[in-house]
Amino acid sequence: MMMETSLLEMIRTRGICAGHKYSCVVDDSFSVYGPMQIRKGFFFLLVTNGTACLDDVYRHYEIGTGNLVVLTPSTESVLGQLSSGFRMQVLYVVPDYFDSLPDGQALYNQVARLLGNFRLPVFVLEQSRMEYLSRTLSLFSRQLEDLSLYRDGIIRHLCSFVLLQMADALCRENLESSVYVKRSSEIFRQFKKLLV
């Protein structure tokens, strides 16, 4: 029987680090490690090929090509049963850093309605949106480490860009969700930042 491992630890050892975020491509070769525990951070998973299972304490989700999964620090899940040829792009953002990004709230508004109903934010993206997001995520590459003077600013703007890109894609799906940040949500976000 295989032991559960932490996706975060695997990303830290096999992924690309730039500032306060890690980027990694996960493929079916990860299945040799067994089920992967996902917790304590902001994880953005974009499945570009194949299928896998994602479980939390409430539900079982089958995810596949075109699925975008947004996991927050308040959620815990396990990824397993990766199909042959499975491939996804993962972006992990440290919670404190995410909270410092002004554009994080727009995305959080889109996922909060599901979190409040004890559902993981699993979305299906149109093919063209998935391909565009995949290209954007591929910008989180080792070349970022070669930058010296403006690396932090570039990473910050790149994070904001990808968060707004995801929020825009989810706004089209969640037509009943508000696109704008409520004042009460912004106050709560500021409170969390101060609390940390």
| Strand line-up across the major sheet | 2-3-10-5-8-11
The count of domains is 1
**First CA to last CA: what distance?**
39 Å
- Average pLDDT, rounded to a whole number, is 80
Sheet with the most strands, sense and barrel status: 6 strands, antiparallel
Helix content: 25-40%
How many strands appear in the DSSP assignment? 11
Low-confidence region ranges: none
What is the CATH homologous superfamily assignment? Regulatory protein AraC
CATH architecture: Sandwich
> How are helices and strands ordered from N to C?
EHEEEEEEEEEHHEHHHH
Summed up, the helix count is 7
The best one-word shape is globular
Describe the protein.
This protein is α+β, with helices and mostly antiparallel strands and 196 residues long. It has one domain: Regulatory protein AraC (Jelly Rolls), CATH 2.60.120.280. The protein has seven helices and eleven strands. The chain has helices at 7-14, 95-100, 104-115, 127-137, 143-146, 151-173, 183-195; strands at 5-6, 16-18, 21-27, 36-38, 42-49, 51-55, 60-64, 67-71, 77-80, 87-93, 122-124. Strands 2-3-10-5-8-11 form a six-stranded antiparallel β-sheet, with helices on both faces. Strands 1-4-9-6-7 form a five-stranded mixed β-sheet. Helix 3 (104-115) crosses helix 6 (151-173) and helix 4 (127-137) packs antiparallel against helix 6 (151-173). The longest helix is centred in the C-terminal third of the chain and has 23 residues, at 151-173. The relative contact order is 0.18. The model has no long low-confidence stretch (mean pLDDT 80).
